[in-house]
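Researcher: Next sequence.
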Amino acid sequence: MSFVLSRTRRTPPPRSAAGRLWHHTVASIVGVLALAAAITAGAQTLRFTHAQAVAADTEYFPELPQVRPVELPDDWALSRPDQGGPVWYRMSFDAEAVRASGELLALYIERACSALAVRLNGKLVHLSGRLTEPVSRNCQRPQLVALPVAWMQPRNNVLDLKVMGFPLREVASRQRAGGLSVVEVGPYAALADKHAWRTLVAIRLPEVISGSLLLVGALIFSMGWLNQAQSFLAYYGAMLIGWALVLSRQWVSDMPWPNASSEFLLAILASFVTLAAVQFLLRYGGERRRWIDLALPAQCAVMPLTLMLAGPQHLHAMATFWYVVLAIEVGTAALFCLNRLWHSRRGLFWPLATLGALMAVAALVEFGAQQFGVDIRVIGAAQIIPPLMFVGLGLRMVQQYGRQLQDAQHDRAELERRVHEASQQIERNFTQLADLKVEQVTQQERKRIAADLHDDLGAKLLTIVHTSDNERISTLAREALEEMRLSVRGLTGKPVPLVNALADWRAEFVSRLQQAGVDGAWHAPADEEVPQRLSARAFVQTTRVLREAVSNILKHSGASRCSVRCHIAEGDFQLVIQDNGKGIPMELDGKLDRGHGMASMKHRAKQLHGQCLVESGPGYGTVIRLTIPLDRHLTPV
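Model: Next structure:
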């Protein structure tokens, strides 16, 4: 069991030198007995809950009338709110048993704010930092001091602790006011574990959290800076960076400027953190007010001005006022944001509500520490838990941003695909429009040429037919007029009903054969079986193929009979012309394309995407088969 040295009440300071000597002797005897009991009980620790204290800036503990007993922990915010350091503390103990055992003793101090010097029997054994401005800031750093056995006496060993700190009125937060915790003396191994654990919680963990806040904050700030549509990310990142700087006060010991400057910077840093927090909460909730955008930066300028006007002697009071104002602003923005999320995006409500609750608890603990004093371990836990939640929420935002970025890239790829398809469609439409325009212009030009041929050349040919006395000239003029009329029909581009086309072909075919004394036979489907229309181009080319075939029969075959069969089969329009003439001579065998106009007929059929086949033999007559695909040149009526 541990042996605790304590007092039930505070003894008033002695009024005489003899009284002070008697009090010092009694305290030393009690300390020796307690340490001896602790060592014999199994190397237990000795806790000093009382000490002799005096304020003096000397190299050694001074023997002054102002020396008085104090209870430990000694919180300067209560015991000396208007006075700073340095302050000397003295404790005494015996070490006869320790010297005999050779065991190493250590001194453990959980809190000495801000810097500490330790002397054992007048010899300096430890210095935690600078005791003059700029004073080292070790309020949160526990101290473990090895006590050399060689420097110990069997009895009446004196521990003198010089603490350099600052009064409450000169610091922005009560935790950084001067003071000294309970002092423990015991085996080094036992106290080392306690020191390591406290260092981990109070120093190392805040260091890791500060680094995490900086990294996550910088990442989120860059995301918000690059994506103005999600500007709340930039404010959240700035808040994390600011919080990391605020948290650094727990583990950063030495600054190149006086304590007043450090306290001033920490105080005004709270206004910038508040600006980032309020803007994040409002914009995360989908709200943006111009007057708030102007008021928050103005507040960041007004707060340092008021602190400077108040001066270092009233820093704590003015900073406390501003902390309350800033806390109200953040709380109001948080309630507004939670209300918006509850009605619009309830999935985001609970993480932010949890973080808000933890921040409220931390604010209450901080307020309690400022006003009433709270155990530093409770304060440390309250200061560490919210940053951990900040990091967690920040990582979640990064994850959500990554998903949104992935979705945006997918949407962009889909948009590019659709734009490409639309561009191709537009190009096709443009090409079709251009072709249509060309077709329209071509059609207009064809109509103009057809009109010119009909009005000018047609009229002149017709005049020759009726006025010429020469029969041959009149015949040639009539043939030229018919050919011109056929060309004009082709140029106009008007489709011809297949029934009418068959009738025209039959009339011309029978008329020409009768004039030549050749027996002609015409076979065609009934009118109701051919409801299609034939394109003007197909009509003209087919007419010319039929004319060429009849001309060859009349000029070269010597036939006495000729027949034409027209029918529609397997999606094609077929025209078969057959005669009983002498056929194509042997010398032209294999050279049909170069004789009797066969080449022109086949060429015309090819232009119609069809074919023209010629079958002939000497003494067996000739068969010409013209095939035209229906899907290209025949359309329903």
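Model: The chain has three domains: 3-199, 201-415, 495-636. The first strand starts at residue 3 and ends at 5.
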